[in-house]
C-alpha cells in the first residue's frame, strides 16, 4: 500500500533529482532578467486530458522559490478540455522560468498516465472488473506513476517485490511445483497475498487446490477464461494478463474475471500537451 508519507518522500526526492538534472550549476538564461522583475502567468492544456501531478508541480516551485504562489483551477482526477487553464502563478520572473520545464514535465507525464487509465477504465465501466497497473514503470518514478494510475480510475497492483508474492513459471520450476511454491510463501511471510501465474486450466486447478489468493490467467483464451471463472467459483480472485489492448480489453472484462493487469498503463505513455504563458 502506498501511504501518504511514502508518497511525500518519493515526491520530494523525485523533484529534487529533476531540478538537479535541469538546473545544474544554475539557470544562466534566467540571469538575463532583473532579480526584482515580477511576473504572473498561467498553464493551459492544449488537449483533453485527465489531470494528475498537482503536488509534484507545487513541490517544484517550493524547491525553486517558496515565494511563488500558485492558484489551481483543476484537481487531480479532473477531466479538462483543450485551452483550459490548469493553474495561474505569480512571483519572481526568474523563478517562474527556472521552474517551468520541470513543473510541466511532471504534470504532463503524470497526466498522461491518468489520461490513459481513464480511457481504459471507461471502456469497462459496465463490468465489475478492476484494471491494475504493473511493475513496468519508468525507473525512479514508480510511486508517482502508481499515484497517477489511481487518478485515472484504475488500481495499483503490488508496489514492488516486497509487499506481495507473484509466483511465476521460473519460481515454480525452482521450487518444484505450484503447491510447493505456495506452501513456502505462506511459511515465509504469513498474511502476505500470494498470487500464482498459470498458463492453462490444469495449473489453475493446482493453484486453487494449494490455496492461492489470486491466480493470474496468462494469455488464456476467452473460452478458457470463462471456464476458469466457473471453476474458481469465488475461491480465489482471478487476474487476466497478457495481450491486453483496447480491442481485447472489453471481451476479457466480460468473462467475469476480477482483475486485468495492463503494463501499458505506465510503460507506453504519451505526455499531455501543456503550455505555460507569462502575462
Summarize the entry for a quick read:
This protein is an alpha/beta fold and 279 residues long.
Q: What do these coordinates show?
A:
It is a single chain. This protein has ten helices and twelve strands. By secondary structure, the chain is of the alpha/beta class. The strands form three sheets. It has a six-stranded parallel β-sheet with strand order 6-11-10-9-8-7. β9 (214-218), α8 and β10 (237-241) form a beta-alpha-beta unit. α1 (4-23) crosses α2 (54-64). The longest helix has 31 residues, at 93-123. The protein is elongated, with a radius of gyration of 22 Å. The two termini are 42 Å apart.
Ranges where pLDDT stays below 50 over 5 or more residues in a row are: none
Question: Treating each run of at least 4 consecutive H or I residues as one helix, how many helices?
Answer: 10
Note the gap between the termini: 42 Å
Which descriptor suits the 3D outline?
elongated
Kindly provide the radius of gyration, computed on alpha-carbon positions and rounded to a whole number of angstroms.
Answer: 22 Å
Q: What's the total count of β strands?
A: 12
Class of secondary structure makeup: alpha/beta
User: Which range does the strand content fall in?
Assistant: 15-25%
Q: What is the helix/strand order?
A: HEEHEEEHEHEHHEHEHEHEHE
* Mean of residue pLDDT values: 96
* Helical proportion, percent range: 40-55%
Instruction: Give me the side-by-side strand order of the main sheet.
Output: 6-11-10-9-8-7
Largest sheet composition: 6 strands, parallel
